[in-house]
Design brief:
Elements lengths: L1 E3 L5 H12 L4 E5 L2 H8 L4 E4 L5 H8 L4 E4 L10 H19 L3 E5 L13 H12 L5 E7 L1 E2 L7 H7 L1 E4 L7 E4 L1 H14 L5 E6 L4 E2 L1 H11 L6 E4 L2 H10 L4 H15 L19 H20 L1
Parallel strand pairs: 1-2, 1-4, 2-3, 4-5, 5-6, 6-10, 7-9, 8-12
Antiparallel strand pairs: 9-11
Helix pairs in contact: 1-7, 3-4, 4-5, 8-11, 9-10
The structure holds NADP nicotinamide-adenine-dinucleotide phosphate.
Amino acid sequence: MYVITGATGNIGSKTADILLDRGEKVRVIGRNSDRLRRFVDRGAEAAVGNVKDTAFLTRAFDGADGVFAMIPPDLTTRDLRDYQGEIGASLATAIQKAGVGHVVSLSSQGADLPSGTGPIMGLRDQEERLNRLKGTHIVHLRPTYFMENLLMQIPLINRLGVAASAIRGDVAFAMVATRDIGACVAERLVKRDFTGTSTWDLLGQRDISLDEAFSIVGSAIARPGLKYVRLSYDEAATGMREMGVSSDVARLFVEMSRALNEGRFSVGRPRTPKNTTPTSIEEFSTTFAEAFAASTLRAAA
Ligand SMILES: NC(=O)c1ccc[n+]([C@@H]2O[C@H](COP(=O)([O-])OP(=O)(O)OC[C@H]3O[C@@H](n4cnc5c(N)ncnc54)[C@H](OP(=O)(O)O)[C@@H]3O)[C@@H](O)[C@H]2O)c1
């Protein structure tokens, strides 16, 4: 039986679906039973609770052949690294107490760097925390920038007709679809083909710049001239705060954008069959177009 944290999210939902499609036993974790119902209807067991609650998590991990362990994002938290540390410690303690043998942990590109990577520093902490566990085999997946991040631009495209962030538009970097991360998680859980502690890069299908990515998704939403605008770091932080992101998270996201712009991670990484995944930005643009159509329908309603 496999236990999936963040089961209603991008990666967790795809992982759970793949495992259920294969007829595997799955326990899905989330905070809301209604949101987990679609997995229960397909035969999964639901564990409803908060991953900060170590006693709950220990029960949820009991009997697992493998666990997918992720720290969910919280864009409003006052101190992101503290928040990541609290959940990371809860996950680690529960893994140990439940005696889980195999863990697929969600980390990130850049987790090898000792400083200056914003939210990725908390994932580096988590790699180190989990690596200290005795008797558990752990693989840390290190995906690059998610293609799903592009979906966060939909409100701005609807409002102002452009996409914008602090990342340079002309730098080609690795970008991955979360369905490919979910496929890797599911495969690792079923095969359990890792021992000790290790890392696994996931770099997407090819490197691509944001100028190119928005040109491709622009065509998919019948806005062929869609432009990507690079914001200054101050403009990006202000824009995030105006959208309800906490000052600390905005500061850390700007730090991460700066590191990407400087090519400190995800840029020019050597590709191999192991770290390259199938979904292209052209294929992902269909997902983008569906989300965009749903947003315009909602606005019209
Ligand atoms: N975005 C990127 O480019 C990138 C790149 C590399 C790594 N990452 C990592 O990927 C993570 C995001 O993965 P994702 O996109 O799959 O996540 P996601 O879509 O945000 O899903 C996370 C899920 O976790 C659940 N959750 C949130 N807080 C919880 C809590 N306190 N207790 C229990 N469940 C909770 C939520 O479900 P309910 O609301 O139903 O409980 C949510 O659906 C980030 O946190 C980051 O560490 C991101």
